[in-house]
Amino acid sequence: MGFNLPPPGEQTNMNFRVETAALRTAKTRLKELGSDTSVATSYAIEHLDVSGADNGVLFVHVDNVCTDTRLKVLDVLSRLDSLLHDSGNELGLVARHYDQSDHNSLARMDAQIPPEPKIPKDERYVDDPVVDTAPEDPGDYVPEEHEDDEDGVIMAPGPFDPYTGGYGTGSGTGVQA
């Protein structure tokens, strides 16, 4: 199994996204699980200890087996705690690496943009205030008088006749007079 890499010099479009917040959440959870091994360690210490009153041959054998088992279980739990904590730390470092990589990538792209665009002098924007050339409204506009209907609605003339260009006087033949 191999990768299909493009020939040298050919550019590829690789879309790759890492959710660094998820990596940090996993890091926290792994460290919590590592801390939970202390409960298992306490349980192993408490319950893998056999004590007896007789010092017979059978008891010595059982005591040796329990001691050996307890030591192996404690060793496994210690390594599991270390492994979970180390894995969590590595996930945190990976998250930091991807954040830094994204930051560096953005900085490289930003560096390619010139700080001031090269615009010809005759096309440059001049930051002068805009002169308003609209005439000042004297405020003395009075609308024309219209005939009102009995309900006070102003009626517009119409309808517009598209054939004659006038208001309702066309012949409807489509021929202008």
Write the layout of secondary structure elements.
Blueprint lengths: L19 H28 L9 H55 L66
Strand content: under 5%
Q: Percentage of helical residues?
A: 40-55%
Shape: elongated
- How many helical stretches? 2
Q: Extract low-pLDDT stretches.
A: 170-177
Structural class: mainly alpha
Q: What Rg is obtained from the alpha carbons, in whole angstroms?
A: 44 Å
Q: Report how far the terminal alpha carbons are from each other.
A: 85 Å
How would you sum up the major sheet? none
Helix-strand sequence: HH
Tell me the total number of β-strands: 0
Mean pLDDT across every amino acid position: 76
Structural description of this entry:
The chain is mainly α and 177 residues long. It is built from 2 helices and no strands. Helix 1 (20-47) packs antiparallel against helix 2. The radius of gyration is 44 Å and the shape is elongated. The model is unreliable at 170-177 (pLDDT under 50).
